[in-house]
Amino acid sequence: MKFTDGYWQIRDGYHVQNPADIRDIVQKGDSFTVYAATKRIERKGDTLNGTLLKATYSSPMPDVIRVQLNHHKGKVNPGPEFELNTLNTDVQIAQDENGAELKSGNLRVTVNKTKGWDIGFHYNEKRLTGSGWRGPAYIESASEGTFFREQLELGVGEYVYGLGERFTPFVKNGQVVDIWNEDGGTSSEQAYKNIPFYLSNRGYGVFVNHPEKVSYEIASENVSKVQFSVQGETLEYFIIGGANPKEVLDNYTKLTGKPALPPAWTFGLWLTTSFTTDYDEATVNHFVDGMAERDLPLSVFHFDCFWMKEYQWCDFEWDKNMFPDPEGMLRRLKDKGLKICAWINPYIAEKSILFDEGMEKGYLVKTADGSVWQWDKWQAGMGLVDFTNPEATSWYKDKLKGLIDQGVDCFKTDFGERIPTDVVYYDGSDPVKMHNYYTFLYNKAVFDVLEENLGKNEAALFARSATVGGQQFPVHWGGDCSSNYSSMAESLRGGLSLGLSGFGFWSHDISGFEATAEPDVYKRWVQFGLLSSHSRLHGNESYRVPWLFDEEAVDVVRDFTKLKLSLMPYLFNSAVESSVQGLPMMRAMVLEYPDDPTCATLDLQYMFGDSILVAPIFNKEGNVRYYLPEGTWTNYLTGVKVQGGCWISENHDFKTLPMMIRPNSLIAVGAIDSKPDYDFADNVSLHLFELADGQTAQAVVVNQSAERELQVTATRNGSKLEVRAEGAGKPWKIVLRGIDSVSNVDGGSQEAGEQGIIVTASAGASQLTIEL
């Protein structure tokens, strides 16, 4: 939201006051408050009839500084508020006649009293950003109420990322971003998942702690500033530091919640009924059996909206005309080794048998006169479950438990963005703040009932909407995209932005949701989709099984599904890292290579975990141009080695794409490619790529409970390769990628393989010595 007219003038209708003269700094415990007048105070009389703005600095955990700006603090705040975690923090405060400083870990804020308003944020000795002259502002408008604004410095060459799952350009500089959840598809500036947190390539993050609309001007009003504003008398934000962008994300997710670890079965291929297609048990079995007959490993079958009868969403009852024996059908599908997902949303249509019950018991959101809020968009006469009412939440969860008892393993939690603001909530929550926050309560209720009934690390959603903290309830998918290359690229931008906003796991509708893709788009999107955290074939008005596109599509789905399943030892360990450190599995290049300036703007490629670079192909011709950082990289699929530090142009058929392995990498590859949930450590192969002299590579293999089973470390000294294995209770081997011969092996046996020499450790061996 813009308040200025150019650099010097204020827009008509606004009265802007900035802190101009620091009058006092008062320490209280582990915080201090700066009191600033909005004009220069020359004599005692100047203190009368004027405004005093306050800024309080504190720290909820090491390397994080909280900033609380306020004008009048007496206003009632009905909530809701984001759930934040705090840690014991050694806060150091120093103060003298020139100003004050608060230090938390390696992060500190400095207040200079001699310059009117001069606030700096530093990590060690590096200045990250600051708030200066005319930065903070208390703004009054006769027609719109009051606002609080902050402007933080944006350095030369500094880029801003994140702010949720945004499909606009990956680098947010120059954009106006409103944090307001909307159902806008993937081809607009609107977003399903709005997160008031941005990450800078200068190595810090900024989190604005407001559930309501936060309006950002990112070098778009003042071109050297990031501005954010909210309505009201207060503004609270956090500066989040770290030694690198990964540490910043770790600290941000310590504050707002770590992603849960999804169960291993969720990483396999999902197939859905699609949305408006016709289907019954025979149709479902036709597709499930067709996948099996073609040797296409399938892990999850999803029933989209019309598993319930039209006009009755949600009543959580199977449409008896289409599914007369739902319990038997689910049992028969599960006997084929499948997990089951069912579509839901938080709306109760008037025709649903649950509407009267919800209305009578006060479980639905109301209007100011006590009526049930209703409209006809989406479902005729639908109401909205009031998750601020504990009894309503329990009621909703009980309906889902009935489905879990029938055999449903997870839920696609659709919608949650179309939330009205002219309503009254059970607990008195501010409806404007609830617009974004509603999705947190909705997804938490569903995630909790799954975890309560299936166990920890067995719960999984397929969620569309999110706010701060929603990363704790994975998985999220990118919403309604079109079936073309442009939409494939915008989906990737959205996923990379969400990953830099604290979300670890993300998916998208392979080949697009709207319309039906051309066969080439389908096949290219399959490559991208199966080299994503989670992989789902889903669409709107047509089925997405590959043989409806062409026979080559069947081969592509088979090859890339099996590829992903074979990589589960590597991928599941990456998933564990995501849940512990708050890192995305699909990582923007800037996250892994923050010191490589070329990586700062890349959004058509990504790192899959820390060692695999993926460059999807966005054209029918198979042409791709991608960037490799320094070092010798190896295409995992073809074995071709490419020297990095430059841009690469290639052409690929539908069986390959740039899937490049970082030098000095050890990739754990499983012995099974037919399912995602197997014993990852049993007969695991450790593929070693381009280990340089004096370097060490390491791989960790965990089980499905995230417990470490095997750790293998390879070190090269000249022509000698030392390989050590900790916890080697099961057979394991190492594959020397691109090496055709070795002179000697101690501790195992060697044989030639298509990809390089295979060294199998002797039974019980924990060490190999290989002479190259």
TrEMBL record:
Taxonomy, superkingdom: Bacteria
Sequence ranges assigned to domain Glycosyl hydrolase family 31 C-terminal in this UniProt record: 582-667
Keyword Nucleus part of the UniProt annotation: no
UniProt keyword annotations, A-Z: Glycosidase, Hydrolase
Limits of the Glycoside hydrolase family 31 N-terminal domain: 56-216
Molecular function GO labels: alpha-D-xyloside xylohydrolase
Domain Glycoside hydrolase family 31 TIM barrel residue range list: 259-573
Enzyme class of the recorded protein, top EC level: hydrolase
Listed EC numbers: 3.2.1.177
NCBIfam families reported for this sequence: PRK10658.1
Family recorded in the similarity comment: Belongs to the glycosyl hydrolase 31 family.
PANTHER family: GLYCOSIDASE FAMILY 31 (PTHR43053), MYOGENESIS-REGULATING GLYCOSIDASE (PTHR43053:SF4)
Name of the protein in question: Alpha-xylosidase
Gene (name only): yicI
